[in-house]
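dumping this here before i forget
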Amino acid sequence: MDIKQFKLTNGEEIITQVVEWPDDDAVEMVIKNPLKVFSVQTEDNSFYHSFRPWMLYQIDDKNLMLLNMSQIVGEANPHQSVINEYNKTLNYLLKDERKEVTDIEENVTFEDLAEMFFRKGKLH
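structure:
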């Protein structure tokens, strides 16, 4: 399975596994486990990058998604260091998401969930 980096028309960058490339007449490709690339500039003008799920609750080895080809303005083979970080983040999310969803109380608020994810370093 190919791991590709796409620049989308809205400016977002994603790293994803391409399950199936489109045929000549198709407008969508099949992908799974897309992670959005975030770039942050610190006060000392250095940069760091991190990954977050592109769509909520879609990081799963069983979930397939369609990506419209007309929304892609750039495609690249990510550097090996980016692939390594993608795989580490994906493994972390796949392992921890299943465990924590069953532990969430019914009356939890969005703010509680956001705090839980930030505190555990999932959204960094």
